[in-house]
Amino acid sequence: MTVSIWQANGTQPVREVDFLIVGAGLVGCSAAYFAGQAGRDVVITEARDVALGASSRNAGFMITGLDTYYHRAVERYGSDVVREMWALSRTTHRYLRQFIEAGDVPIDNCGSMLLAESETEAQELERAVRAMEAEGFDVVYHAHDPLGRGYCAAIEQPQDAAVQPYQLVQAIFKQSGAELVANNEVYRIEQTSAEIVTVYTRQYIFQARHVLLCTNAYSPYIDPYFAGKVIPMRAQCLVTAPLKNGPVLNTCGYSDYGYMYYRDTFDGRLLIGGGRKQNTWLEGNTSDDRITDPVQRILEAYLRARFPDVDEPIEQRWAGIMGFSVDKLPLVGTLPDKPRVGFAVGFTGHGLAMGAGSAERAVDLLLTGANPGAINAARLG
Ligand SMILES: Cc1cc2nc3c(=O)[nH]c(=O)nc-3n(C[C@H](O)[C@H](O)[C@H](O)COP(=O)(O)OP(=O)(O)OC[C@H]3O[C@@H](n4cnc5c(N)ncnc54)[C@H](O)[C@@H]3O)c2cc1C
Questions:
Q1: Whose CB among 6, 202, 323, 339 lies 3.0–4.6 Å from 216's, allowing a Cys bridge?
Q2: Closest Cα partner for 124 from 303, 316, 255, 297?
């Protein structure tokens, strides 16, 4: 985000801050909570307002794990890393459930279904489930379509849930006790001494002892370190009008290797998301959160093919920008040339699985130097 000389010319008031967080999404608000618990005085600066980035545009799935089927993740990252990532997502869900309970946030404990669109994907699901069973995970393999909608197989994860994501982040923000400076974009960050970071924003020049960037998809626009490490990626959804005959699903989840997704909303609509696979050229490398026609046509076609019993009109469509990390694991670290500036970014469409746990590790890294483990950005060099 750029700021013109007319909006701010370096004469903004200076504010001294203990712990400054950039970005008031799910991750920034979770980090504010953990930094507050560690006794820090926390201010969040946000270009828009609480949760107006991806955190209130997502589908609200609390699905355990990464975006890659378990056995494939083991092939890619090794079993120790994959075990750690699944544990991190369970930790994240434990924190989210605490925030949800304390904040009275709507949640549907419906479990999730990862559905196969083809026999090949069904075989992948079966291998994934066998690998997860060997780890003692609570998962169920369905060799036939449990929804009766033409899928080939499914993995059911009974402990998963679907939440109201906007209210969730509002609740986390409230429970953090942090101060928010909204409508206040950061446009320059300098490590001015060993102990002080100067953060230029439209309304203030902050002098902060610690800074944490929770700017996910937008990180490459803030610091060149993130170029090629975090790739902004658009994701889109649609919802129907409330269904006359009540909900058609009692679950939420993905199909087609995570490229398509679906759930019931709390007011009885059907939500369909995805459509990016056929449009990667259009949906990648953009921070423009307008919807696009080719993706919306795919979502509509999916709705009509898999839910022929739903004839309610489509009432709303939207898009949001996810931050994909280059190796699809979250990135937690400090900027090489600014050691007091930490970051927790790159959630690859899975912030509700990895966000709060990663935020906790980022706060620990900044305050105590604790190694963030498998999500340590140092792995990228
Ligand atoms: C359509 C869609 C569906 C999704 N579905 C799911 C799902 O079901 N489950 C799941 O786990 N994940 C899902 N995701 C991903 C999930 O939304 C993200 O992983 C999560 O919201 C990331 O949270 P965040 O706080 O890191 O980022 P964001 O919510 O994007 O927050 C970053 C914040 O930084 C602010 N910011 C940026 N630049 C500046 C600046 N210069 N100065 C000040 N502030 C700045 C932005 O305004 C923004 O508020 C989905 C995403 C989309 C778009």
A1: 323
A2: 255
